[in-house]
Specification:
homodimer; 499 residues; mainly beta; Tachylectin-2, Chain A; 2 domains; 3% helix; Sucrose-6-phosphate hydrolase (chains A, B); carbohydrate metabolism (chains A, B)
């Protein structure tokens, strides 16, 4: 199906309900459907929005286009949780229905203000010449889920940015409100984080661009997020078009972070010793991560697993993408970001089963036969070994998601999805790799959810996330030795059911 | 909102998608929404359909009208489960879109035939004079959830029935297929169960009406279901307009059962010693129960919790009704039907908490303060006591769902929902009552799910099910003594989370 601009921006009330019901059923019945991650009811999901804690529940929204796997007229769909793992879909919360968001209720954040959840979002508008105008709008959600939009935008684009000005993160800091915005500078056409300040959410002061690096951050920054971890500011953002000499990445667009020492909000400056941004995720598909500090001070993040300007195999089924699991963020003693599953993820574990590899010298050993399509697999591979772990594999291992590990002198981990099923995103390669410290044990905490993998390495110092689209019949977990030595390791496999 | 006939039968493709998304969000956000029972995505849910086991999963469908809490153009919505407790919604499966079901894909059953799930359902058609024609249609569902309708009806209404001829249960018995159908006899205008037989699903023999009682079964029988328990046939059915002298009931329409000794299918006769049908549920809202024998021979039942021709408080929110939990059926040594929760219901239990009442002489005692809105409460009340258990109660117990028990000489259990919240169905009374054996311990296994209660009495010998619509703030469980004696009992309370 060719999607015309007119179709993509058709108001939701011009679509018929039967089409929507069929699209929902098509997504519900997909053999690639996720079992314990947030996914769209139909159509396309992209950025997480409004990740927050309010009224004794966790909240998150997803950018939604319900009528197909394309970027059309966007709205916010609301989900609610008691534990950051089990989410209840609360449906359409914020649509594109005013003159300040006529072409999409784009991404934004949520902050508790005066007993309501205050949503700040980008209203996307196209004028008669299809020129984009970006408004930064406000809305409130009450305890019954009723959303009320403010009558006028909070912030209009200043003269020094192009029409690419979006993704507001509203933060309360001391006695003022601050907003971070992704922006493109009009003069240099480079990516920036714009900062605004207000005492009353009405009068806004333009504090200029956030100074956090001497480098140029590509041509546009999307989805800036600031969280505080151990009192240190951490900026998570997507610098589109970043020069790979500044920081290397393999995906079409990167999602990166910088850990600062100190934030001087009013001066719009984050001091940092970090010379270059670092990839938040070393896998294939993480983008638009949204992070926030919960009332208890902890920092949590959730990501879109999907990338702009890419197609995925489920597009043909009229739906696409999912969210990552929520991760708790911390810093290690070297100020490196650590991402860990939240405690309630362990509640999903069903009937643990010990897995162990022994003497798989140049051969293969089945670790779990007839595995579920959804599971957690936690392993420790001792130092000095090398081999390939085959996930969601067929009988002869010709089809599988491969994790090639080496824990000796040249220590590394390579994830290869070339043989995991339908090939896609070929322009960006089929492997992702991280270097490991030589001669150290390797800890892997692997989550598989039918068409999604999330691999936590060494307690969350690295995470590799990606999609894959293999046959439902592929249900083995196996190990293959690639050295002359003995392979020996132990771990646990837990089935995970649909939540 | 007044619903015209035209609105109610408007094809789904004449409704707009925005309306549907808003109705779905409205249902999702309802403060009366169910947490662990099947409920409609939007609009009205009624009969369970196609309850079956196929492709290693349990299946059930619900009669759906997605656009409001009215009986409009009906379709089947599909759900799938691994354990009869956690259900995945698979969306619209069978719509009203052919000349043999133009005014509704009405109720029916599902049977595994030739590696597919064979759906048999009533196609509701209205002619130009709005005269009803009922076709008994077939369709198949494959392992990918793709439904294909047969080109022509399987069974046309015979001359001896009126237009009220529906709800086929297709059964394979020995080397033939049999269909039971709810019917109204044209001559006597009385309720009947029509029986048909076929060797090939094409040529059908009319075996006449099932002979199972000398009494007249009201003016219409809906939803007949036959299951075998310990080789005994059990007929579950809804005799509308049944004379209360034949068997008493309190609801607008009853849902009853008869246990037979022997079924002579080809003679259309079920021999029974039971002189009158018995209420399947002694509560307020159970109807249209569907039961079937699983491949392991066990019999399971699931019910619509809702009644025809009634309004419920959520109607104003554009949605209505839910399903009961699935119950496993058995017979006790006196051939009485026993209904029990399925084993996986126990998996829902979170953090058990002992509850006990002591010395609540004419006073009240809080058993659980700050209880969840969803829970299981299992109690044994020793013989010789009397009192009132207050569920979902406010602080002074002026609002609560009351269970008045007496376990002495005049032993009985009364459920009173008069003070449980919004009053509804007032014409049919606010209490339901069952007699108990004098001077015996009373075992109660109570399930509460926000706006639904299911009370299993004495191991499932009686079940009382009903809806209630109280304030979200009512979260106490308390006991009140009504005798001069000491009250003493123990039990366990388990919180149940959203599934």
């Amino acid at each position: 199906m060719e999607w015309t601009r007119e179709q993509r921006y058709l108001p939701y009330n011009k679509w018929d309900a039967e089409t929507l019901l069929k699209l929902q059923a098509q997504a519900d019945n997909s053999s690639y459907q996720l079992n314990y991650h947030i996914r769209p009811s139909s159509g396309l999901l992209n950025d997480p929005n409004g990740f927050s804690y309010y009224n004794n529940h966790w909240h998150v929204f997803y950018q939604s286009y319900p009528f197909g796997a394309v970027h059309g007229l966007k709205s916010w769909v609301h989900l609610e949780s008691c534990d950051l793992v089990h989410w209840q879909n609360k449906g359409l919360a914020l649509g594109a229905d005013t003159k300040y968001d006529s072409h999409g209720a784009y991404s934004g954040s949520a902050t508790v203000i005066d007993d309501k959840l205050f949503l700040m979002y980008t209203g996307n508008v196209r004028d008669q010449n299809w020129q984009r105008i970006s408004y930064q709008n406000g809305a409130t959600m009450d305890k019954n889920g009723i959303v009320t939009k403010l009558a006028a935008p909070l912030i209009y684009a200043p003269a020094h940015v192009t029409e690419h000005f979006r993704d507001p993160q509203l933060l309360k800091h001391r006695d003022a409100y601050y907003v971070l915005l992704g922006a493109q500078d009009k003069t240099t056409l480079s990516g920036k984080v714009a900062v605004f300040k207000s005492k009353d959410l009405k009068n806004w002061e333009d504090l200029g661009y956030l100074d956090f690096s001497p480098e140029t951050m590509g041509y546009m920054i999307e989805c800036p997020n600031l969280v505080f971890i151990d009192d240190k500011p951490v900026l998570i953002f997507c610098p589109q078009g970043l020069d790979k000499n500044v920081a290397n990445y393999d995906n079409i667009y990167p999602n990166m972070y910088v850990v600062g020492n100190k934030l001087k909000f009013d001066a719009a400056r984050m001091e940092t010793k970090q010379t270059a941004p670092i990839n938040l995720d070393d896998g294939f598909d993480v983008y638009a991560t949204q992070a926030f500090n919960a009332p208890d001070g902890k920092a949590y993040a959730i990501s879109w697993v999907g990338l702009p300007d890419m197609t995925y195999p489920t597009d043909e089924e009229g739906w696409a993408n999912c969210f990552s699991q929520v991760k708790e963020l911390s810093l290690d003693e070297q100020n490196r970001l650590v991402q860990r599953p939240v405690p309630a993820m362990a509640d999903l574990r069903q009937a643990g089963q010990v897995v162990k590899a022994e003497k798989a010298i140049n051969g293969r050993q089945i670790l779990v036969d007839n595995a579920s399509r959804s599971y957690e697999l936690k392993l420790t591979i001792p130092k000095g070994q090398a081999g390939t772990l085959h996930l969601v594999a067929n009988q002869d291992l010709s089809e599988s998601l491969q994790l090639k590990f080496a824990t000796g002198d040249a220590a590394q981990l390579v994830v290869d999805r070339a043989h995991s099923g339908i090939q896609f995103a070929s322009d960006y390669g089929f492997t992702r790799q991280i270097d490991l410290t030589a001669n150290e044990d390797l800890e892997l905490d692997i989550f598989v959810d039918n068409s999604l993998f999330e691999i936590f390495v060494n307690g969350g110092l690295k995470v590799l996330t990606g999609r894959f689209f293999g046959s439902q019949a592929n249900n083995q977990i196996a190990i293959q030795g690639t050295t002359k030595e003995e392979l020996a390791f132990r771990g646990t496999y837990w089935r995970i059911d649909h939540i």
